[in-house]
Amino acid sequence: MGLKLLDWCHPLIPFPGSLYLETLYSEGIPVYRFIQRPGDLVWINAGTVHWVQAIGWCNNIAWNVGPLTARQYQLAAERYEFNRLRGVKSIVPMIHFSWQLAKNKRGTSSFLSTMGEVFALHWTATAHPSAVPSTFRLSHWVHEDKGRSRKADR
User: What range(s) does the JmjC domain occupy (predicted)?
Assistant: First the structure.
């Protein structure tokens, strides 16, 4: 069912309006709707397609949190790149986070800090090509077909 959901949603993300509930229901895709009351915490996993709508006056406070692991970072980086290529502004400061991750290597795996360096350079190269060393090539680090570091395969 997950692949079916991704295949259906891929051309629609970001959603221009509603989630087309009738289509989701008819395709057998699970939909959870609820009202979040004051003091309630809603936790959704990485990659979950979600839609938030106010039913009245509200203050919205959201945190993007996750464990500091290479997999979590990869998911965040992929989503950032997906949104960036579609002109969607990210609410997560991934470029700044990546540079900080590369700079402050204490407490992280060498693979995770290397991923931080690679993606920080990649995103900087996209915005300011002259600021990146000419020897840098993202394809040296990441398989296009697997989306993970070659160093992880060792």
Answer: 1-82
27-78 pLDDT, tens per residue? 888 888 888 887 888 888 776 777 777 787 777 777 777 777 778 888 888 8
Q: pTM of the predicted model, to two decimals?
A: 0.52
Nearest to 77 by CA among 45, 42, 122, 130: 122
Instruction: Compute how many other C-beta atoms are within 10 angstroms of the C-beta atom of residue 76.
Output: 19
Does residue 35 share a domain with residue 74? no
Compute the CA torsion angle 141, 47, 14, 148 (nearest 10 deg): 10
| Structural domain boundaries enclosing 122 | 70-153
Structure tokens at 118: 């690679």
DSSP per residue, 60-114: --------SSHHHHHHHHHHHHHHHHTTPPPSS-HHHHHHHHHH--TTS-HHHHH
